[in-house]
Write a structure and sequence with these properties.
By secondary structure, this protein is an alpha/beta fold. Helix content is about 25%, strand content about 20%. The strands form three sheets. Strands 1-5-4-9-10-11 form a six-stranded mixed sheet, with no helix packed on it. Strands 2, 3, 6, 12, 13 and 14 form a six-stranded mixed sheet that branches. A two-stranded antiparallel sheet has the order 7-8. The longest helix has 21 residues. The protein is globular, with a radius of gyration of 20 Å. Bound molecules: benzoic acid (BEZ) and fe (iii) ion. Fe (iii) ion binds next to loops.
């Protein structure tokens, strides 16, 4: 695919309503226990958000025509089920940055709306489910999962999902079969994992729905750089939610979801086996108790164990 072609994840309504169902079910409970509704907190945060919008109205002299267009746009975000998509594109990265201030271990980034529960359970070394003629460059991703003190985390799990070589996610687009290029890989007794897959491709958010239409109307790029999503888990440790990107990707630094970080870039090298490439990446998980006991931002602690 060239950089001028557009590769949408799916048609907006199909992908959006599926992502909405997942968000509504609360299936992503690996992350938080959910927020409380303390009155002062609601007044502070909701008040600040509303004041941000009111100040934009005042500063930019928003007209009734624009206000009505905004109402119609919000209604269509609901109608297409695009709330998870819109929120994960334009707001999740800020929430993740706030969370990261008090987290140790490997660098994380956003989850996004395309994680699915109940995927193939595989032992390392593992090959992700794929079609017999799965297109794309064969790729091995391998490494070790340890605690912050270097102890290998035997039996840690690496939940991995990414697009195919054309930028399609299984479960959200008609083309790839269910479960394609998704799996949950159990590490060996040294916390090591090795996953055989295909290198993913850049893609755009759906362009036929309100999130993509607003993005295009503002003249912003709708592209995400190619990436691999990972959830790395081990009992007693905080789940690491992250993504891995690729050096040389034209969309690095221009991610519509603002989720790429320099620390998360892979530089796969040829293995000598045909056109196969390999990248090695270790993950460090912080113990659950560490975070609860010390809410000082990592950068302000007296001794900091450097995350990868
Ligand atoms: C993704 O990570 O794939 C993603 C994140 C936010 C919005 C859309 C997609
Ligand atoms: Fe993605």
């Amino acid at each position: 695919m060239t950089t001028t072609e557009s590769q949408s994840v799916s048609d907006a309504v199909t992908a959006g309503s599926h992502a909405t169902d997942i968000a509504r079910s609360g299936a992503a409970t690996f992350r938080t226990a959910g927020g409380g509704a303390d009155e002062a907190r609601v007044a502070t945060v909701v008040g600040a958000a509303l004041e941000g919008i009111r100040s934009a109205i005042r500063e930019h002299k928003v007209t009734y025509e624009e206000f009505d267009a905004f109402k119609r746009w919000l209604i269509s975000v609901s109608d297409t089920g695009e709330w998870p998509l819109f929120l994960d594109v334009y707001l999740e990265f800020e929430v993740e940055k706030v969370a990261a201030e008090t987290q140790d271990g490997s660098v994380g980034t956003i989850l996004g709306p395309f994680w699915l529960d109940g995927q193939a359970q595989l032992d390392s070394p593992a090959t992700l489910p794929m079609r017999d003629d799965e297109p794309g460059t064969p790729m091995i991703l391998a490494g070790q999962v340890t605690a912050t003190d270097g102890t290998p985390l035997a039996g840690a799990k690496v939940d991995i999902w990414h697009t195919d070589d054309e930028g399609w996610y299984s479960g959200f687009a008609a083309k790839p079969p269910a479960g394609n290029l998704r799996g949950v890989v159990t590490c060996d007794d040294q916390g090591r994992y090795e996953i055989h897959t295909r290198r993913p491709a850049p893609y755009t958010i759906p362009l036929d729905g309100p999130t993509g239409q607003m993005t295009l109307a503002a003249g912003w790029s709708p592209w995400r750089p190619a990436h691999i999503h990972l959830l790395v888990t081990a009992p007693g440790h905080r789940t690491l939610t992250t993504q891995l990107f690729f050096t040389g990707d034209p969309y690095l630094g221009h991610d519509v979801a603002s989720a790429d970080k320099p620390e998360l870039t892979l530089d796969p090298q040829p293995t000598g086996n045909g056109d196969e490439v390999r990248s090695d990446r270790d993950f460090v998980l912080e113990a659950e108790g560490d975070r609860i006991q010390d809410s000082t931002p990592i950068g302000q602690r007296s001794s900091t164990s450097e995350a990868q």
